[in-house]
C-alpha cells in the first residue's frame, strides 16, 4: 500500500483507496453476513442497529497495515466504529489515522478527489 490511504465505510462495505499523486488502487471489503432489516420495537433496548462485522473490520485493518497516513470517511457511525475498533485491536494502525470525517455516498472518483485534496493540505502540516 502507498503512503496515503482513504477508507470509505458504512455498515455493509468498505472501499479502501491507496493513493499516490498520480494513481489510485481500490479494493473492497464486504460484510459477508446475510442482510437483515432490523425493526425497532418500543420495548427493545438499544438503537436497533446491526453490529459491525468484526471479520470485515479485521479485513479492512489488514489492508491498511502498510499505510502511513489514513483518512476514514463515511456516513453514520461506521467510520467511528472502525476507528474505535482499530484503537482497541490494532493500535499500530490506529496511530496512523489522521482524521475521521462524515461523508454521504459519493462516487469513487469524488472520494479520491476529496482525499487527495485533504492529504495535500495535511502534508504541508506534517
Can you walk me through this structure?
- With 126 residues, the protein is α/β, with parallel strands linked by helices.
- It is 34% helix and 25% strand.
- The radius of gyration is 15 Å and the shape is globular.
Layout: helices, strands, pairs:
Layout: E1 4-9, E2 13-19, E3 24-30, H1 54-64, E4 69-74, H2 78-89, H3 91-94, E5 97-102, H4 108-123
Parallel strand pairs: 1-4, 4-5
Antiparallel strand pairs: 1-2, 2-3
**Mean pLDDT rating:** 87
Structural classification:
alpha/beta
Tell me the strand percentage band: 25-35%
Return the string of H and E elements.
Answer: EEEHEHHEH
Roughly what percent helix? 25-40%
State the strand order across the main sheet. 3-2-1-4-5
- Number of alpha- plus pi-helical segments: 4
Distance between the termini: 19 Å
User: How large, in whole angstroms, is the Cα Rg?
Assistant: 15 Å
Question: Biggest sheet: strands, sense, closure?
Answer: 5 strands, mixed
Coarse morphology = globular
Low-confidence stretches: none
Number of strands: 5
Brief summary:
By secondary structure, the chain is of the alpha/beta class. It has 4 helices and 5 strands; from the N terminus they run E-E-E-H-E-H-H-E-H. Helices cover 34% and strands 25% of the residues.
Task: Spell out the key features of this protein.
126 residues; alpha/beta
Amino acid at each position: 500500500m502507498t503512503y496515503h490511504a482513504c477508507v470509505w465505510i458504512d455498515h455493509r462495505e468498505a472501499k479502501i483507496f491507496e493513493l499516490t499523486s498520480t494513481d489510485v488502487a481500490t479494493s473492497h471489503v464486504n460484510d459477508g453476513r446475510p442482510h437483515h432489516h432490523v425493526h425497532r420495537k418500543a420495548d427493545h433496548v438499544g438503537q436497533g442497529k446491526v453490529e459491525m462485522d468484526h471479520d470485515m473490520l479485521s479485513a479492512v485493518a489488514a489492508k491498511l497495515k502498510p499505510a502511513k497516513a489514513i483518512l476514514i470517511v463515511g456516513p453514520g457511525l461506521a467510520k467511528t466504529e472502525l476507528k474505535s475498533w482499530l484503537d482497541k485491536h490494532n493500535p499500530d494502525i490506529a496511530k496512523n489515522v489522521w482524521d475521521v470525517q462524515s461523508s454521504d455516498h459519493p462516487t469513487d472518483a469524488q472520494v479520491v478527489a476529496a482525499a487527495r485534496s485533504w492529504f495535500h493540505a495535511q502534508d504541508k502540516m506534517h
